[in-house]
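Readers of this paper often ask what the protein records in our data store actually look like. The remainder of this section carries one protein's record, kept here as part of the documentation.

:::
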Amino acid sequence: MADDRRTAGDGGERSGDEGRTDANGGARRAARAGERAARRPRAGTPGSTGGTGTPDAADRAELYAALRAALPPDTVDFSTTARALTTMDASNYRRVPLGVVAPRHADDVAAALEVCRARGVPVVPRGAGTSIAGQAIGTGVVLDLTRRMNAVRHVDPVSRTAVVQPGAVLDSLRAAARPHGLTFGPDPSTHARCTLGGMIGNNACGAHSVAWGTTADNVRALSVLTYDGTPLRLARGWPKDPGLLLGAVRELVDGHLALLRTGYPRDLPRRISGYALDALLPENGADLARAFCGTEGTLGIVTEAEVRLVAEPAARALAVLGYPDETAAADAAPGLLPYGPLTVEGMADDLVPPNARGGLPRGRAWLFAEAGGATEAEAAARAADLVRAAGAADALVVTDPAAARALWRVREDAAGTATRIPGGGEAWPGWEDCAVPPARLGGYLRDFRALLTGYGLRGAPFGHFGEGCVHVRIDFDLITTAGVRAFRRFSEDVADLVVAHGGSLSGEHGDGRARAELLPRMYGPGLVALFARFKDLWDPAGGLNPGILVRPAPLDTDLRFAVLPRRPVDVAFGYPDDGGDFRAAVRRCVGVAKCRDTAPGPGVMCPSYRVTGEEKHSTRGRARLLHEMLAGEVVRDGWRSREVADALDLCLSCKGCRSDCPVGVDMATYKAEFLHHHYKGRLRPRSHYALGRLPGWLRAAAPAAPLLNALARIPPLAALARHTAGITPERPLPALAPVPFTRWARGRLGPGARTALLWPDTFTEYLSPEVGRAAVRVLGAAGFGLALPPGRVCCGLTYLSTGQLTRARTVLRRTLDTLSPLPDGVPVIVLEPSCAAALRTDLPELLPDDPRAARLAASVRTFAGALEEYAPDWTPPRLDRPVTGQTHCHHHAVLDPAPDARLRARAGLTGDLSGGCCGLAGNFGFERGHYEVSVACAEEQLLPAVSTAPPDALVLADGYSCRTQLTHLTDHRPRHLAEVLAEGLDRGDQGGG
C-alpha cells in the first residue's frame, strides 16, 4: 500500500524500536559532524555543489522520479504551476523551487527528506505562505503542509490542550476549542488562513499576546523530524535519554551559560529574532519546545504539536481611544497594561478607509484596547477603566460583538491596506515588525519617523503597541538599482536605531531574508556564532531552509520585482489606480492571502478556492501565476500560457477580490485582459461565441421567441444547441421572453417629479422583463418620470467576461454615442447588478480617454440607490415578511448594498442575505466543465441560507444569474426586490409618496 512504502535500502516496514535505533544513528552522525559542518558549503547556498535549486533537467527529472517512487504520486508536483505558485510568500523575495511535495503524514515527510538528503537538495516547509520576511520560499523542494496535514486531531478540555498537525489553520483550532469555552491565545491578523506550523516556525503572536503570550508560550510539546531523518519529541526539560543530538545541544548550552544569560535584550516581551537559546537555560526550565519555536524551518519539520489552550472570556468590550498622532498613542499604551487588557493595538488614520472613519472616535490615531469579563457589564466596566486611564482625546466603548468585529476588521486589514500609501504609491514590508520595550515605543516612533523623512520615505506604523511591536509598510523603490541600494542603507540604519532603543529586529514575523543578515548588530558576533553552531548540530548538511537565520543571503538579493519586465506591458484596460501599468496591478498582490479564508461571512472572495481548496484557484495564486508569466522564467509562454489559462478558467469574475482583498486586486479585470491577449488571432471556445456574444444572439432571436422556446423543449434539439454553444448538458436552456421589455415599456412610461433613464439591460430585456415591469410600477409610484435610451445600448458585460475587449470597446462606444449627450444630473437606473457594475467600473477603465465614459459611470444608480437618493420621502409598501437569498457579487464588490438593506427594512422585510457567490456568474455556470464547481459554490452559502429560512420567507436575488441558479437547484421562485415591492403595491399594502 502507498502508506507502507519505504525507499530502497530501508529494509521494508520498520518497528518503532528500529526507527529509534536509526534515529540515534542519525543523531550520532549529526553530533560528530557538527563542528566540521560549519566549514562546509551548505545545500542551496553560494558555493555549494549540491541543492542549488538549478540542477540540469536530467537531475531534476531523476529527483522527481525518486520522490514519486517513495511517495504516493499525487503528493508530488513538479509542474510549472506548482513551482510558480510557491516562488513567493508575503515578503519582498522570490526564489524558484524545484517542486512541491504535499505530504499526508510524518512518514511521507520522512520519505521526502530521505530522497532529498541523498541528493543534497534543500527542503523548505511551508504553511499558508504568509511569511513576511521570506522564510517560506527556497530553491529546493517545498513541503506544502496545508493540503493534507491540516487536522485538529484532539481537543482535551480537562487539560486545556489540543493536538494539531502543522497545516491546521488557526481558526480551525479555535472553532474546535470554542464549544469548550477555550481558545488558542496567539491570534495574528491572518488567523483565518495562517497555520499552526507556520506560527510555530515564526513564533507568531497576534493582537492578544498582551494577555496570552506568543506561540512559544503556548506550545507544550512538538514532534519533529530533522533533515537526516531523526524523529524527536521536544517538550520542557531535557529527556532522561537525550540521545546524541540533544546531548550535544545540552553541552553547547552548558558551555556558554554566561553568554546566553547576558546576550539577549531585557524587558522585551516581543523578542523573536534569532534562536531562543536562552529558553534552554536551567533557570528557564530547559524548554526544548520553546527553543524550537521561531527557528523558521531551519532545524526540523514539525509533524505534530501539542498546544495549550486558554479560557475564552465570556464577554468582551472594546475601548477605542483617539489621539492626535501615533506617537501620542504609543506613549499612552504602557499606562494601560496595569489594568490587564486583553490587547492594546495601535494604528493611525492613514490606514483607515474613509468609509470606516465614521465609526471611530475623534483623532488621527487610535488604540484598540480590549477587556474581558464574566458578563457584558463586567467587561464594559473594565473597558471604562481603560478609558479613564488612557488620557485620550476621545473614546468609544463597544460591547456589541458585530460592531466590535467590524472595527477589528479595519485593524486586521491594515497589513494589506498599508501596501498602498495614501495619495498613491506602493509600499512594501522590508522593515515590518521590530519591537522595543513598550515604555520606549513613543520615542522610537519619533526617531523612526525622522529616519523615514531623512530618506524621503513614507510609511504608516501600526501594530501591537501594548508590547512595543510596530508593523509598517514603506514606499521603498525596490525596482531600480539606486532604490535597492537605499533600501539596504535604510535597513542597516533602522536596525541600529532599534538596537539603540533596546529592541529586537523582529517582534513577530521572524528574521527570514529581510533581517537575518543584520542579526550581528543586535546580538554581536559571539552569540551569532553560537546560533551557527546550534544550527549545525541539528542540520549538519545545511539542508533545511538554507540562508535563513544562519549564514544568510544578503537582504537585497532575490527581490521579487527584479524579474519583471523593465518596460510597461501593452494592455487594453487603463488600470487607473496603478498608473496604467499592468505590472503594478499584478504587484498589488503582496501575499497576505485573505482570499484563502473559507469561513462563511458577508464576503465573496474567492468562490472557486473556497470549494476546491487549491492555491491556483485563489486570487493570490492567480496573481502569482500572472507575476511569473510577466517574469518569463517559470511560466514561459507569456499571454499564451496554458498554466495561467487553466488557473483563470475557474475564476467566476465575481469581482469579490476588488472589495474583499485588502489591496484591491481585481482578478476579473486581469482575467479579461489575459483572455483578450490569449485568444488574439486564434479560435476561441465555442461558449465565447455563444454566451460571450449573447446580446446579439438574443436580439436576433427575439422575433422568433415562441418558436425557439418550443424547439428548446425538444430534448435532442436542446442537446444539439447546448453542444454547439459549449453549454454544459446539465443546464436547461433559458426561455426567451415573448415580449421584450422595451416593447412593453414604450408608451407606458410617463413624466414624474423626478426624471431618470431606465437601463434596458440584456437580461431584463430578453429573459426577465417582469423585473423591468415591476421596476416601472415601483419607480412610478415613487414619483419618477422614466425614459428609455433613444437607441440600442449595452454595458458589454458578456464581451468583458470572455475577454473580447476589442468588441467590448466597439459596443461601449456605440452605447456612448446613443446616450450622448446624457443630460447632467439624470440618474441611469440599472436593475441588473452585474450590468451596473460593468458600467460603473469596466466602462471607464476600458475607455479611459473618453470623458463620456466617466460621466455615464458616475450617473449609474442601483434600483434601491435611486429610490434612497432621489425619493427619500417615498414610503414603500409594508410587507412584514422574512427574506432570504443573496447579495449579488458585483453589488457587494462594486456597488453599495446598504441602500438595499435600508429599503428592505423600511418595507418590513426582515433577515439578512447571505454572502458568497451563487456560482452561476453569467456565462461561467453555463460553460461546459464548470457545472460541478458552479453548484459547489451555491452549496457553500446560498443554498444553506435558503433551505434553513422560515417557510414564509421571500427569496430575493436581484441578479439574473442568482435567480437562474436558484431556479435550477431549488423549488423556490426567487425574485428581484422590485418585483416584491411591486406586488405589495398591487395588493394595496400601505405605501406612497
Remarks:
- The two ends are 75 Å apart (CA to CA).
